[in-house]
Specification:
single chain, 492 residues, alpha/beta, Rossmann fold, 3 domains, 11 strands
Length: 492
């Protein structure tokens, strides 16, 4: 058998002939000589060398058998590639010839090369993502979920950036009018700014007073106005344009401020508004207002907050055990401009324009509170029948091209009020957007909302209506081309 080896190989084998070593072989490519894979086999070094050298042509550096020799003690190493051996079980009986072992090993190598899951393991390399079928589904799910989140963040960031840029361009285009109104706000003697009405931050209001001509100095009608701002950027100064126009017709305007999110949720906003309304009802006579002609008005998010405050006050008054600081009976009418009154219907729509639904849920104190802060739902609840009977007449104004808060929000609220017996009226402005009615049209000097408000508040006062009819046309504040561009890029 040694004749097939070279001279140097035969000399090496002869020197090792008499040495007996206890070894354990766990190479999956060389079958064990006994039925037990963990037994110690005393074999001669010559037999081991024969087996190795006869198969040396089929081995490479990565496929050498792993064996351990340590002072005659049993020490077994596990196969490096258990999956390779699983494709073809290794017999526990020694093959009759080394040639059979070599053929069996070559078959295993061909199987390993043909299996894509095993081909990358020969050099110790492992595919990270799709290495095995057992890990594929989990890895794909993780990567898909992570990618979806990243795309969501990118999309949200993109919308925020484009919205911010649109807002900056919009502000730039209406800046001529903003500067004129700002000058009036800070320097006019008819404006009383930062009147404190509560102990919370931003519990302040501004009052816009009509000019005194010495002839008509009797008590003036009053509008308690709550500005919009998506519950996030509301500020009392946003009502300065409305206050400037209406005060010129003999109407006092009190713009009430309130805390915004994240400093407060809708519950605190409603409480701030209620405190401001209470101050107006109880103190407006000091500023020349008529306590019997107080109108509550809100715009956008301010319309929602004002409606919530009014309904909540009515519910409180309907309970004889509760005490109040102001009464619904002091409010002559509620005037809602471009407001949303059913938060369930509004939440999904706002998610496409802002604020996002997740933020809106935090503002509204969770989805379970949406019905509590949805006046449209509350007025239809039979248990609030007595409270609904206390509500004043309601007039809702809305533009038909309003995409921030659709006109259907006012339409469904008006229908709900009428079904429960509340006097409600809806006025729609054809083709007007969310900002047209409140910003662009007043800056044009052609304001249909302004005319409707004056007609309703001065109804029954012929002298006031005649004086308004004789008033000169309102002055334009911004060139028309700039207002048209502002309307096209407005983020609202």
């Amino acid at each position: 058998m040694h004749k097939s080896f070279s001279k140097s190989t035969r000399l090496y084998i002869s020197k090792m002939q008499s040495q007996i070593l206890p070894i354990s072989i766990s190479n999956p490519f060389i079958p064990n000589r006994t039925s037990s894979s963990s037994s110690i086999l005393p074999i001669s070094a010559s037999s081991q060398a024969e087996a190795v050298f006869m198969n040396s042509k089929d081995y490479d550096g990565d496929d050498l058998a792993h064996s351990s020799i340590e002072d005659g003690k049993k020490f077994e190493t596990k196969p490096f590639l258990p999956r390779v051996s699983s494709h073809d079980s290794v017999s526990n009986t020694l093959l009759p010839s080394a040639t059979t072992s070599s053929v069996s090993y070559q078959q295993r190598r061909r199987r390993a090369a043909s299996d894509p899951n095993l081909s990358d393991l020969r050099g110790g390399r492992r595919r990270f993502f799709w290495n095995s079928a057992g890990r594929t589904d989990g890895d794909k799910f993780y990567i898909t979920g992570f990618g979806s989140k990243m795309l969501g963040y990118i999309r949200s960031g993109y919308k925020l950036m484009t919205g911010f840029l649109s807002l900056q361009c919009y502000a730039f285009l209406i800046m001529p009018g903003v500067l004129q109104v700002a000058y009036y706000y800070y320097f006019s003697s008819q404006v009383r700014r930062d009147i404190v009405f509560g102990d919370q931050p931003r519990n302040k209001l501004d009052i816009y007073l009509p000019k005194s001509d010495g002839k008509n100095d009797g008590p003036k009608p009053v509008i308690a106005f709550i500005t919009g701002g998506a519950w996030v950027i509301g500020y009392k100064a946003w009502g300065s344009l409305l206050g400037r126009h209406l005060s010129g017709t003999g109407i006092i305007v009190a713009c009430i401020d309130y805390r915004n999110y994240p400093k407060a949720t809708v519950n605190e906003m409603v409480k701030d508004a209620s405190r401001g309304i209470s101050f107006v009802c109880n103190n407006i006579t000091e500023y020349g207002g008529d306590p019997n002609r107080i109108y509550l008005m809100g715009q956008s998010a301010g319309a929602h907050i004002a409606a919530c405050a009014l309904v909540e006050q009515a519910i409180t008054e309907s309970d004889a055990t509760q005490t109040t600081t102001w009464s619904v009976s002091q409010i002559k009418a509620y005037l809602g401009l471009s407001g949303g009154y059913n938060m369930f219907n509004l939440a999904d729509h706002l998610n496409t324009r802002g604020p996002y639904k997740s933020i809106l849920m935090r503002i509204m104190e969770g989805e379970e509170s949406l019905s509590k802060y949805s006046p449209e739902i509350i007025v239809q609840d039979p248990k609030y029948t007595n409270a609904v009977a206390l509500l004043p007449p309601v007039t809702l104004f809305h533009g038909t091209a309003d995409y921030s808060i659709p006109a259907d929000c006012s339409r469904t609220f008006a229908d709900s009020l009428q079904r429960v017996g509340v006097k409600a009226e809806l006025k729609l402005y054809e083709g007007k957007t969310h900002t047209d009615v409140f910003v662009q049209d007043p800056m044009r000097g052609d304001d249909q909302l302004f005319d409707d408000l004056v007609a309703q508040i001065h109804a029954g006062y012929e002298e006031a209506l005649a004086r308004q009819a004789r008033a000169p046309p309102r002055r334009r504040l911004v060139p028309e081309f700039m207002l048209k561009m502002a309307g096209k890029i407005s983020p609202f």
